[in-house]
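Need residues for this backbone.
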């Protein structure tokens, strides 16, 4: 049985953590799977999603490689003007 859940997110995802989590759900990637692909702990990914920590530049680059189509700003801060 596939235990992956689908979740809908608001159209405007304000934080980096929100955007990482939304992309992960969109791609159907479990937290543990994403952590393994990035070579980090699932606890660290969870902290990113809660905006307690921020991925390094190298980790951000890897996130873009994994999620692919990032025409919408995943890593840009939409509130910074």
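Answer:
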């Amino acid at each position: 049985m596939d235990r992956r859940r689908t979740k809908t997110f608001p159209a405007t995802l304000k934080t980096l953590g929100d955007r990482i989590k939304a992309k992960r759900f969109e791609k159907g990637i479990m937290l543990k799977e994403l952590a393994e692909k990035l070579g980090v702990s699932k606890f660290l990914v969870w902290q990113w999603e809660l905006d307690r920590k921020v991925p390094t530049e190298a980790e951000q680059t890897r996130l873009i490689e994994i999620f692919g189509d990032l025409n919408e700003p995943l890593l840009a801060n939409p509130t910074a003007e």
